[in-house]
Amino acid sequence: MSSQKGSGSRARAQKFQNATAFKNDKYGASPQVKKANAKVHDGVCQRCKEILEWKVKYNKYKSLTQPRKCVKCLQKTVTDAYYVMCRSCALQLQLCAKCGKSEEVVIPLDKKEEVMEEEEPKGNRRRKKGDAHEPDEEDDLDDFGELDSDCESEETEK
Fold first, then answer.
1. How far is 100 from 119, CA to CA, in rounded Å?
2. Is the dihedral of CA 65, 67, 68, 71 positive or negative?
């Protein structure tokens, strides 16, 4: 056993130490692992953030398949795994969305939404369906430029 009954501390140092750290995507990341690695844990206190990061790091994080019930508004609006409150309740009450305590939130929910709104216009560079057929100034010129006009003038001379 690692410790004697009744004693909370260990008598000796750790016997074996791992040579390399654990990697959750060592043999190629699955879609679930990729999604968990990319997830930003916002609206939680520092302790809960560290817990969630540990779960992601050591492949213990399991994402939700269906929304859970919020403990404040009792609606099925909790979409993040391990959270007990929905985003709107946590933001309104200034509580940690995971533990429900009124501790300082590390990454506020409203800050993330502002950042997402700022990034959206920059990243959305695709043309809309209506804009796809609009000619540009450069498209007005033929591929051959002046060569087409030379051919037309020669044809008119004949």
1. 30
2. positive
Cα–Cα distances in Å, from 25 out to 22, 59, 80?
Answer: 9, 9, 22
SS (H, E, C) the chain: CCCCCCCCCCCCCCCCCCCCCCCCCCCCCCHHHHHHHHCCCCCCEHHHHHHHHHHHHCCCCCCCCCCECCCCCCCCCECCCCCCCCHHHHHHHCCCCCCCCCCCECCCHHHHHHHHHHHHHHHCCCCCCCCCCCCCCHHHCCCCCHHHHHHHHHHHHC
- Residues of the chain below pLDDT 50: 115, 123, 135, 137-138, 141, 158
CB-CB neighbours of 99 under 10 Å: 17
Domain ranges of the chain: 27-117
pTM comes to: 0.61
CA terminus-to-terminus distance, the chain: 104
Q: Among candidates 53, 119, 146, 43, which has minimal Cα distance to 86?
A: 43
